[in-house]
Amino acid sequence: MAEIIDGKRISREIKDEVKAEIAREGISASLAVIIVGEDPASQVYVRNKKTACEYCGIRSLSYELKEDTPEEELIGLIDKLNKDDTVDGILVQLPLPEHINEDNVIEAIDPAKDVDGFSRRSVGALSIGSRGFVSCTPAGVIELLKRSGVEIAGKECVVMGRSNIVGKPMAMLMLRENATVTVVHSRTRHIEDICRRADILIVAIGKPEMITHDYVKDQAVVIDVGIHRLDPETNGGRKLCGDVDYADVEPVASLITPVPGGVGPMTIAMLMKNVLTAARNR
Predict the structure, then answer these.
(1) pTM to 2 decimals?
(2) Dist. CA 183–CA 168, nearest whole Å
(3) Domain of 36: which CATH number?
(4) 159 close to 181: Cβ distance less than 8 angstroms
(5) Is 250 helix (H, G, I), strand (E, B) or coil?
(6) Annotated catalytic sites, by residue?
(7) Is 43 part of any domain?
(8) Same domain, 93 and 209
(9) Does residue 154 sit in the same domain as residue 258?
(10) Which domain holds residue 156?
Protein backbone atom coordinates (compact mmCIF):
# COMPACT_ATOMS: atom_id res chain seq x y z
CA MET A 1 0.00 0.00 0.00
CA ALA A 2 1.43 3.33 -1.09
CA GLU A 3 1.63 6.41 1.09
CA ILE A 4 -0.60 9.14 -0.36
CA ILE A 5 1.09 12.47 -1.10
CA ASP A 6 -1.38 15.08 0.14
CA GLY A 7 -1.18 17.95 -2.35
CA LYS A 8 -3.91 19.88 -0.55
CA ARG A 9 -1.95 19.94 2.70
CA ILE A 10 1.36 20.82 1.08
CA SER A 11 -0.19 23.55 -1.08
CA ARG A 12 -1.78 25.02 2.04
CA GLU A 13 1.64 25.07 3.72
CA ILE A 14 3.10 27.01 0.79
CA LYS A 15 0.22 29.50 0.69
CA ASP A 16 0.57 30.01 4.45
CA GLU A 17 4.28 30.74 3.95
CA VAL A 18 3.52 33.24 1.17
CA LYS A 19 0.84 34.89 3.30
CA ALA A 20 3.20 35.18 6.27
CA GLU A 21 6.04 36.59 4.16
CA ILE A 22 3.79 39.20 2.54
CA ALA A 23 2.52 40.30 5.95
CA ARG A 24 5.97 40.29 7.59
CA GLU A 25 7.70 42.21 4.80
CA GLY A 26 4.79 44.56 4.11
CA ILE A 27 4.86 43.69 0.41
CA SER A 28 2.12 44.94 -1.90
CA ALA A 29 1.70 42.20 -4.50
CA SER A 30 -0.80 42.01 -7.34
CA LEU A 31 -1.80 39.54 -10.06
CA ALA A 32 -3.77 40.35 -13.22
CA VAL A 33 -5.70 37.40 -14.66
CA ILE A 34 -7.14 37.55 -18.17
CA ILE A 35 -9.72 35.06 -19.44
CA VAL A 36 -11.09 35.05 -22.99
CA GLY A 37 -14.43 33.32 -23.54
CA GLU A 38 -16.60 31.26 -21.21
CA ASP A 39 -14.91 27.87 -21.00
CA PRO A 40 -16.33 26.34 -17.77
CA ALA A 41 -13.06 24.68 -16.71
CA SER A 42 -11.12 27.91 -17.26
CA GLN A 43 -13.64 29.84 -15.20
CA VAL A 44 -13.20 27.39 -12.31
CA TYR A 45 -9.41 27.76 -12.46
CA VAL A 46 -9.70 31.56 -12.49
CA ARG A 47 -12.03 31.53 -9.46
CA ASN A 48 -9.58 29.29 -7.61
CA LYS A 49 -6.73 31.69 -8.39
CA LYS A 50 -8.77 34.63 -7.10
CA THR A 51 -9.53 32.74 -3.89
CA ALA A 52 -5.84 31.90 -3.41
CA CYS A 53 -4.87 35.55 -3.96
CA GLU A 54 -7.38 36.70 -1.33
CA TYR A 55 -6.04 34.13 1.14
CA CYS A 56 -2.41 35.13 0.63
CA GLY A 57 -3.01 38.88 0.69
CA ILE A 58 -2.35 39.39 -3.02
CA ARG A 59 -4.46 41.92 -4.92
CA SER A 60 -6.30 40.19 -7.76
CA LEU A 61 -7.30 41.99 -10.96
CA SER A 62 -9.69 40.17 -13.30
CA TYR A 63 -10.25 40.86 -17.00
CA GLU A 64 -13.02 38.82 -18.62
CA LEU A 65 -13.05 39.24 -22.41
CA LYS A 66 -15.59 37.98 -24.93
CA GLU A 67 -14.94 34.84 -26.99
CA ASP A 68 -14.58 36.88 -30.20
CA THR A 69 -12.10 39.39 -28.78
CA PRO A 70 -9.47 40.13 -31.46
CA GLU A 71 -5.88 39.08 -30.76
CA GLU A 72 -4.76 42.70 -31.17
CA GLU A 73 -7.13 43.82 -28.41
CA LEU A 74 -5.85 41.13 -26.04
CA ILE A 75 -2.21 42.03 -26.73
CA GLY A 76 -3.11 45.71 -26.26
CA LEU A 77 -4.44 44.90 -22.77
CA ILE A 78 -1.29 42.96 -21.95
CA ASP A 79 0.84 45.91 -23.08
CA LYS A 80 -1.15 48.21 -20.79
CA LEU A 81 -0.60 45.84 -17.84
CA ASN A 82 3.11 45.51 -18.70
CA LYS A 83 3.43 49.28 -18.24
CA ASP A 84 1.41 49.38 -15.02
CA ASP A 85 3.88 49.48 -12.12
CA THR A 86 1.18 48.34 -9.68
CA VAL A 87 0.83 44.98 -11.47
CA ASP A 88 3.44 42.35 -10.54
CA GLY A 89 2.20 39.31 -12.44
CA ILE A 90 0.17 38.77 -15.60
CA LEU A 91 -1.57 35.48 -16.33
CA VAL A 92 -3.58 34.70 -19.46
CA GLN A 93 -5.77 31.66 -18.86
CA LEU A 94 -5.23 28.94 -21.46
CA PRO A 95 -6.53 27.58 -23.76
CA LEU A 96 -7.44 30.60 -25.87
CA PRO A 97 -10.01 30.66 -28.71
CA GLU A 98 -8.71 29.26 -31.99
CA HIS A 99 -8.43 32.64 -33.71
CA ILE A 100 -5.83 33.81 -31.14
CA ASN A 101 -2.20 32.68 -31.43
CA GLU A 102 -1.14 31.53 -27.95
CA ASP A 103 2.57 32.00 -28.66
CA ASN A 104 2.04 35.64 -29.64
CA VAL A 105 0.10 36.25 -26.44
CA ILE A 106 2.62 34.54 -24.16
CA GLU A 107 5.52 36.42 -25.74
CA ALA A 108 3.68 39.73 -25.30
CA ILE A 109 3.92 39.41 -21.51
CA ASP A 110 6.86 41.22 -19.89
CA PRO A 111 9.25 38.43 -18.71
CA ALA A 112 9.44 40.20 -15.33
CA LYS A 113 5.68 39.60 -14.98
CA ASP A 114 5.54 36.13 -16.59
CA VAL A 115 4.48 34.35 -13.39
CA ASP A 116 3.23 31.35 -15.41
CA GLY A 117 6.81 30.78 -16.62
CA PHE A 118 5.68 30.02 -20.19
CA SER A 119 7.69 32.59 -22.19
CA ARG A 120 10.75 31.68 -24.23
CA ARG A 121 12.93 33.74 -21.92
CA SER A 122 11.64 31.94 -18.81
CA VAL A 123 12.07 28.50 -20.40
CA GLY A 124 15.51 29.46 -21.71
CA ALA A 125 16.59 30.62 -18.25
CA LEU A 126 15.50 27.27 -16.81
CA SER A 127 17.38 25.33 -19.48
CA ILE A 128 20.72 27.04 -18.69
CA GLY A 129 20.20 27.28 -14.94
CA SER A 130 19.64 31.04 -14.77
CA ARG A 131 17.17 32.81 -12.49
CA GLY A 132 13.65 33.09 -13.86
CA PHE A 133 10.08 32.01 -13.33
CA VAL A 134 9.46 28.27 -13.53
CA SER A 135 6.22 26.83 -14.90
CA CYS A 136 3.99 26.34 -11.87
CA THR A 137 2.97 22.69 -12.29
CA PRO A 138 6.51 21.26 -12.65
CA ALA A 139 7.70 23.52 -9.81
CA GLY A 140 4.84 22.16 -7.71
CA VAL A 141 5.91 18.57 -8.40
CA ILE A 142 9.40 19.35 -7.09
CA GLU A 143 7.89 20.76 -3.89
CA LEU A 144 5.66 17.70 -3.49
CA LEU A 145 8.68 15.41 -3.73
CA LYS A 146 10.91 17.42 -1.40
CA ARG A 147 8.26 18.02 1.24
CA SER A 148 7.36 14.32 1.19
CA GLY A 149 10.96 13.38 2.01
CA VAL A 150 11.78 11.95 -1.42
CA GLU A 151 15.50 11.96 -2.24
CA ILE A 152 15.83 13.09 -5.87
CA ALA A 153 19.59 13.25 -6.40
CA GLY A 154 20.97 10.11 -8.03
CA LYS A 155 17.54 8.60 -8.64
CA GLU A 156 16.35 7.40 -12.04
CA CYS A 157 13.39 9.49 -13.15
CA VAL A 158 11.11 8.91 -16.12
CA VAL A 159 8.94 11.80 -17.32
CA MET A 160 6.03 10.71 -19.50
CA GLY A 161 5.12 13.55 -21.85
CA ARG A 162 7.05 16.27 -23.66
CA SER A 163 4.75 19.30 -23.60
CA ASN A 164 6.23 22.78 -23.25
CA ILE A 165 4.12 23.43 -20.16
CA VAL A 166 4.84 20.26 -18.15
CA GLY A 167 7.02 17.55 -19.74
CA LYS A 168 10.03 19.53 -20.92
CA PRO A 169 10.36 21.86 -17.91
CA MET A 170 9.73 18.91 -15.59
CA ALA A 171 12.66 17.04 -17.11
CA MET A 172 14.92 20.07 -16.77
CA LEU A 173 13.92 20.62 -13.14
CA MET A 174 14.66 17.00 -12.28
CA LEU A 175 18.05 17.35 -13.97
CA ARG A 176 18.66 20.45 -11.86
CA GLU A 177 17.95 18.30 -8.79
CA ASN A 178 20.60 15.80 -10.00
CA ALA A 179 18.26 13.02 -11.07
CA THR A 180 19.03 10.86 -14.10
CA VAL A 181 16.18 11.69 -16.46
CA THR A 182 14.54 9.90 -19.38
CA VAL A 183 11.64 11.46 -21.30
CA VAL A 184 9.18 9.11 -23.01
CA HIS A 185 6.34 10.02 -25.35
CA SER A 186 3.95 8.68 -27.98
CA ARG A 187 6.77 7.65 -30.34
CA THR A 188 8.91 5.93 -27.69
CA ARG A 189 9.52 2.23 -28.23
CA HIS A 190 9.31 -0.28 -25.37
CA ILE A 191 7.78 2.41 -23.18
CA GLU A 192 6.69 0.02 -20.42
CA ASP A 193 10.21 -1.37 -20.02
CA ILE A 194 11.65 2.13 -19.71
CA CYS A 195 9.02 3.24 -17.19
CA ARG A 196 9.65 0.18 -15.03
CA ARG A 197 13.23 1.40 -14.48
CA ALA A 198 12.03 4.57 -12.79
CA ASP A 199 12.51 5.26 -9.11
CA ILE A 200 10.35 8.35 -9.72
CA LEU A 201 7.69 8.17 -12.45
CA ILE A 202 6.09 11.50 -13.42
CA VAL A 203 3.10 11.07 -15.73
CA ALA A 204 1.82 13.88 -17.96
CA ILE A 205 0.76 11.87 -20.99
CA GLY A 206 -2.79 13.22 -21.37
CA LYS A 207 -4.63 9.88 -21.56
CA PRO A 208 -7.13 8.87 -18.84
CA GLU A 209 -5.88 6.07 -16.58
CA MET A 210 -3.39 4.83 -19.20
CA ILE A 211 -0.73 3.91 -16.65
CA THR A 212 -1.28 0.57 -14.93
CA HIS A 213 0.96 -1.43 -12.61
CA ASP A 214 2.69 -2.87 -15.70
CA TYR A 215 4.50 0.48 -16.10
CA VAL A 216 5.59 0.81 -12.47
CA LYS A 217 8.57 -0.63 -10.64
CA ASP A 218 7.87 -2.01 -7.19
CA GLN A 219 8.08 0.79 -4.58
CA ALA A 220 8.46 3.57 -7.16
CA VAL A 221 7.23 7.10 -6.44
CA VAL A 222 4.38 7.91 -8.85
CA ILE A 223 3.34 11.50 -9.61
CA ASP A 224 0.16 11.88 -11.68
CA VAL A 225 -0.04 15.27 -13.42
CA GLY A 226 -3.05 14.38 -15.59
CA ILE A 227 -6.62 15.45 -14.93
CA HIS A 228 -9.69 14.37 -16.89
CA ARG A 229 -13.39 15.00 -16.30
CA LEU A 230 -15.65 11.96 -16.06
CA ASP A 231 -19.37 11.36 -16.27
CA PRO A 232 -20.29 10.46 -12.65
CA GLU A 233 -23.27 8.38 -13.79
CA THR A 234 -21.09 5.96 -15.76
CA ASN A 235 -18.03 6.07 -13.47
CA GLY A 236 -19.40 5.16 -10.07
CA GLY A 237 -19.83 8.75 -8.96
CA ARG A 238 -16.27 9.76 -9.87
CA LYS A 239 -15.97 13.20 -11.49
CA LEU A 240 -12.21 13.29 -12.14
CA CYS A 241 -9.36 10.91 -12.90
CA GLY A 242 -5.70 11.21 -13.81
CA ASP A 243 -3.36 9.60 -16.31
CA VAL A 244 -2.63 6.87 -13.76
CA ASP A 245 -5.02 4.02 -12.93
CA TYR A 246 -4.80 4.80 -9.22
CA ALA A 247 -6.49 1.65 -7.94
CA ASP A 248 -4.19 -0.55 -10.03
CA VAL A 249 -0.93 1.29 -9.30
CA GLU A 250 -1.35 2.23 -5.64
CA PRO A 251 -0.62 -1.29 -4.28
CA VAL A 252 2.84 -1.42 -5.93
CA ALA A 253 4.01 2.20 -5.44
CA SER A 254 5.74 3.56 -2.34
CA LEU A 255 4.22 7.05 -2.68
CA ILE A 256 1.52 8.26 -5.06
CA THR A 257 -0.46 11.42 -5.78
CA PRO A 258 -4.26 11.15 -5.99
CA VAL A 259 -6.50 12.93 -8.49
CA PRO A 260 -7.96 15.20 -7.32
CA GLY A 261 -5.93 16.46 -4.37
CA GLY A 262 -2.41 15.78 -5.63
CA VAL A 263 -0.59 17.93 -8.16
CA GLY A 264 -3.57 20.19 -8.96
CA PRO A 265 -3.55 22.34 -5.79
CA MET A 266 0.22 22.78 -6.10
CA THR A 267 -0.05 24.66 -9.40
CA ILE A 268 -1.93 27.55 -7.77
CA ALA A 269 0.30 27.51 -4.68
CA MET A 270 3.40 27.90 -6.85
CA LEU A 271 1.69 30.68 -8.79
CA MET A 272 1.28 32.57 -5.51
CA LYS A 273 4.97 32.01 -4.80
CA ASN A 274 5.91 33.35 -8.24
CA VAL A 275 3.77 36.48 -7.71
CA LEU A 276 5.57 37.09 -4.40
CA THR A 277 8.93 36.74 -6.18
CA ALA A 278 7.80 39.20 -8.89
CA ALA A 279 6.72 41.71 -6.24
CA ARG A 280 10.06 41.38 -4.44
CA ASN A 281 11.94 41.86 -7.71
CA ARG A 282 9.96 45.04 -8.34
Answers:
(1) 0.94
(2) 8
(3) 3.40.50.10860
(4) yes
(5) coil
(6) 49, 93, 116
(7) yes
(8) no
(9) yes
(10) 136-265
